[in-house]
Amino acid sequence: MPYLSNSRVAGTVKKYLRRAQRKIVPRRGKASLILVYHRVAEPVADPWSLCVSPKRFADQLAVLKTIADVVSLDTIVGARSDADLPSRPVAITFDDGYADVFHNAVPVLDGLKAPATMFVTTGYLDTEGEVWSDELARLVLLSDQDPLRLVEILGLPIRRNFDLQKEAEPWRAWEAPRNLRQWLYRELYDRLLNAAENRRADVLAVVRSWCGGWPHSVSPARFLTSDELIRMASNPWIQIGAHTVSHPVLAKIQREKQAQEVTSSRRSLQKLTGKEVQTFAYPYGKKNHFNTDTISAIRSAGFHCGCANYGRPVTRTTSRWALPRYQVLNWQADFFAREITRWYQD
Ligand SMILES: [Zn+2]
Q: How far is Cα 340 from Cα 344, in angstroms, rounded to an integer?
């Protein structure tokens, strides 16, 4: 009998019953955590908080080794009972396939003998420059050009008044924008997320020309080359998982296209690394970003599990097709340790 549930995402009634049950009886079984990182680099123009600095990452990992039991994702997915798991199991994962993970995180993981799974977007391998979302953040948020001018050029409707003099301040893209530049970034991000490739390229060209040149103050958010991926996959502590070809919102595309994204990313990764690829992470990963067609696609492609992107511990009632993960931010070690402890009690 497999440890994790094989069901698709639980229905609403089931969810409420489970919540109510949790209040009166202790959690059924041991809790495991799955962590998700994206980049290990100094955070600059990072509206989605994807960067953890190399120093903070090393500190976080050192703490994790002392307060929890780092295991591979396979150990959690493959466990047949609580007895197969250590007392505080935690798995480490990375999404997307940024080169800084290979250069800054893998040596730390290797040094601490900590297993990790890297979910790679195959269409981003060997990309020259940056992918659209990273370029947009850099151009709009770091430029010293007038954002109002770009709003006018693109003919965007501003629905709020902003203090145009207000300086940029630390802000995360899921918070309400505090100035026009932040609003502009979020507006363009939302419009481009589901835009066709050529439309996206056209808008980015306009943004580039408004910017008046590439801001060179920050090193680009480069993706892995195929060669780096092959070297990374040969490390005994690293497993490679799939994250589609083009990083779409899977729930928004046709079933056939979803299947294509899923199967061809797996095939490319297996061909490049010579290893079986059994784990998958949904791009963006919130509940509205994948659906039952997506789950059917990853099951029939031969994957063993699907990772989502919302924080909750994994227990024996968790569906293996919607494994929750906690995103780690650029936290100091003591704050990180408190979060980990709290998450086991969630
Ligand atoms: Zn992703």
A: 7
Q: In angstroms, rounded to a whole number, what is the distance separating the alpha carbons of residues 345 and 9?
A: 22
Cα(326) to ligand 1 centroid in Å equals 14
Distance CA 9, CA 209 (A): 45
User: Ligand 1 centre from 20 Cα, in Å?
Assistant: 33
Taking only the tens of pLDDT, the chain with its 346 residues reads 466 777 665 454 455 445 544 444 445 678 999 999 999 999 888 999 999 999 999 999 999 999 999 999 999 999 988 999 999 999 999 999 999 999 999 999 999 999 999 999 999 999 888 889 999 999 999 888 999 999 999 999 877 777 655 565 678 999 888 888 999 999 999 999 888 889 999 999 999 999 887 666 667 789 999 999 999 999 999 999 999 999 999 999 999 999 999 999 999 999 999 999 999 999 999 999 999 999 999 999 999 999 999 999 999 889 999 999 999 999 999 999 999 999 998 8
Residue count (the chain): 346
User: From ligand 1's centre to the CA of 52, what distance in Å?
Assistant: 15
**What six digits make up the tokens of 102?**
């290979």
Q: Please state which architecture CATH assigns to domain 12-127+223-344.
A: Alpha-Beta Barrel (3.20)
- Whether the predicted model's global pTM rises above the 0.85 cut: yes
Kindly give the distance from the C-alpha atom of residue 37 to the centroid of ligand 1, in angstroms, as a whole number: 10
Query: How far does residue 218's CA lie from ligand 1's centre (Å)?
Result: 21
Distance 101 CA to ligand 1 centre (A): 14
Read off the DSSP letter of residue 163.
-
